[in-house]
Every structure is written in C-alpha cells, then in structure tokens.
C-alpha cells in the first residue's frame, strides 16, 4: 500500500511539472506594453517561488522511496527508477524557470534604464531649446554676444554617451520583439527633436560667431581710428600752440 501511495505521489508530481511547464514555459508571450512586460516579470517570479517551494515535497518523496527500497527492494526498485526521472525533470524545470525569470528581469531592467536615459537626454534637449531661444535676441554689445555664445557652446559640449546608450538599449529590445512599437515611436520622436534642435543650435552658434567676429573687427577699427584722431588732435594742438599758419602745415594737417 505504501508503494502504491508513493507511486501515486510520483505521478501527481510529474503531472504538476507538466502543467507548470505548459503554463510558464510553453506560452508565447508578446510584450507590446510596459504593463504586459511588468505582469510577465511578476508572474515568472511567482512561478519561480512556486517551483522552489516544491523542493521540500520532492525531498520527502525521495527519502520515503529510498527507505522503502532499502526495506523492500523488490517493490522499491521500480519506484527508484521513476523517482530518478521525476528528479531530473524537476531540476530541469527549476533551471528553465530560473533562466526565464532572470531573462525577463533583465529585459525589464533594460526598459527602465532606457526610460532613465531618455529622461536625462530630454532634460538636456529642454535646456538646449531654452538656450537657443535666449540667444535669439541678444543686445548688440560685444560682451553680451560673447556671453551668449559661450553659454550656448557649453550646452552643445554635452557628451554623446547617453544617446549611444539609448540607441543600443532600444535596439536590443526591438530586436527581441519587446515593446518594439512603443520604443520605435519614442526613439523616432526623440531623434527628430534632437536633430531639429541640434541643427538650430549649431546654426545659431555660427550666426553668433560671425556676429562676434564682425563686432570685434569693427571695435578694432574704431580703436585704430580713435588712436589716429588722438594723434591728429595732439599734432593740431601743437601747431596752434606754435601759431603755425595753416598753409605752412603738411597737406594732411591742412
């Protein structure tokens, strides 16, 4: 009777593992929304806990069968053979569910990381847009134009590392068919805005550089002219002091 009960327990255990495999490992999941992905992660966590909780039952079953086999070798040997199959299947099921749970957790982590990088770069784009707008109406003064140019250039020196991470993380998820529509839409919107603002910023930078160069050249010309006028004024003052007749002066002084 004990052998019959143990055989029944083995059959029930095998049936449970078959159901767990069908439910957690053989279903085709399509993760088209973050909610679906998050639910799948939580489901696999519960599956892993559920499977691992059966470890105690498997150990008890194993000990009982070995005890029976030691006492009644004739009836226990067949049970040992069935037990070995169940143990092998159980270990395989544990490994596969652990693996899938780890994979889904990595995918979810990848998605969260992508969102974080997008938030960082979006904040930078907002800052860049603000700088472009601020430098569109700069007072026509040398210091003001120079400050505006330096301010814009400091924002444009933003490293490209975050954008590289966004591209790689997004492509990894899209290649896996995970959230591909949502990610493609987000990346398309981000890249379009990045290209537009970068183009505007570089164009504004060139305009400010040219304007600054023109103002510096004009300022230099005015300085030279002022120096010449000062020299001429000094020379004319000297002539007047010496009461020299205008017709006695050089042509340029006249």
UniProtKB/TrEMBL annotation:
Keywords: Coiled coil
Chain coiled-coil ranges: 3-64, 208-242
InterPro entries: Spectrin/alpha-actinin, Spectrin_repeat
Identification of the protein by name: UTRO protein
């Amino acid at each position: 009777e004990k052998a019959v009960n143990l055989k029944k327990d083995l059959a029930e255990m095998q049936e449970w593992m078959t159901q767990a495999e069908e439910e957690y490992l053989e279903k085709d999941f399509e993760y088209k929304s973050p909610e679906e992905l998050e639910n799948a992660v939580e489901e696999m966590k519960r599956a892993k806990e559920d499977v691992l909780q059966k470890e105690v039952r498997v150990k008890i079953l194993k000990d009982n069968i070995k005890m029976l086999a030691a006492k009644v070798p004739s009836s226990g040997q067949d049970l040992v053979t069935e037990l070995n199959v169940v143990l092998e299947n159980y270990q395989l099921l544990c490994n596969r569910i652990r693996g899938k749970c780890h994979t889904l957790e990595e995918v979810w982590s990848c998605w969260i990381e992508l969102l974080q990088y997008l938030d960082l770069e979006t904040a930078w784009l907002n800052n860049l847009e603000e700088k472009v707008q601020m430098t569109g109406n700069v007072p026509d003064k040398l210091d003001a134009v120079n400050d505006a140019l330096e301010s814009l250039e400091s924002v444009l020196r933003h490293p490209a590392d975050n954008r590289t991470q966004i591209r790689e993380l997004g492509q990894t998820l899209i290649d896996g068919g995970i959230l591909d529509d949502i990610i493609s839409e987000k990346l398309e919107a981000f890249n379009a805005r990045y290209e537009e603002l970068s183009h505007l910023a570089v164009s504004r930078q060139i305009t400010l550089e040219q304007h600054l160069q023109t103002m510096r050249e004009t300022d230099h010309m005015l300085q030279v002219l002022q120096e010449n006028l000062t020299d001429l004024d000094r020379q004319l003052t000297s002539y007047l002091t010496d009461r020299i007749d205008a017709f006695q002066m050089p042509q340029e002084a006249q």
